[in-house]
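User: Second chain of the day. Same drill as before.
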Amino acid sequence: MTNRTIAIMMPGDMGHAVGRVLREHGHDVFTCLQGRGEHSHTLSRSAGLREVDTWADVVDQADMILSILPPAAAIDLASGIAALMQELGKTPLYVDCNAVSPDTAQKVAAIITAAGAPFIDTGIIGMAPGKVANSEGPRFYVSGPELSAMLALDGQGIRVIEAGENYGEASGLKMTYAGLTKGTWTLHTAVLLAAKRLGVLDTLLQEFAFSQSAALSAMRAQVPFIPADSERWIGEMEEIASTLSDAGVTSGFHDGAAEIFRLLAKTPLARETRADMDRSRSLEDALSIYEEYLPKQDQ
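Assistant: Same format as last time:
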């Protein structure tokens, strides 16, 4: 195995865990926390990541940069890194692992390749490394003309799987996958909130228990806990809506999903993190909180 010097931008829930497993497999993994909050610092330290002071240090030292951050920031980060590449004359491999549309992935690719650096489009599916016992880790679907550097990381706490030769194919896969998973969570939330407002929630839950037990189990497992990630998932739903629209399919489902996440982001539960959220919270208790933030009904 060839050990690499890998920058993780940024060490959030997924990024820090990916950095940790790559470090455990012998790579020099580091990050830059310039402008980041205490939570990012805590996650970085827990993963044992080396820290540098500036983005210029990232470009100067990295063989490979893994961009793992909210989708709305993907282009800005790529633009900043590309400018530093041109300034410093360094061109590390840039891997965009963000939940973005194929169109956005192609825009990021154009920014990075114009700076003279190689680029890989990547879509991550699955939980962060370490979240599921005995798991091979999340799947990193990769696309582009040259994938060997990422394929070399397969089995090192993550799975790396070829998704095509063109930029945007891996992102398209991620968009359609998340369109089902996160889109379903928001649909569940929407119909349950409507039932609560209509005064039929208890009866609906009884019917679900009788005829939709699998869906009800999924609702109880997911709906009370999604506010912690809701703010960063707004942009992902917008990227999915754009992806479907570009494919000639309605964007309406995921425009609506973004609205549900905007609602949940207003609740006090959005201040929780995955590490400190109240896992004992019931579906019914969560819906009572969410309902308070619905638009007021006309009297």
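The chain has a mean pLDDT of 96.

User: Great, on to the next one.
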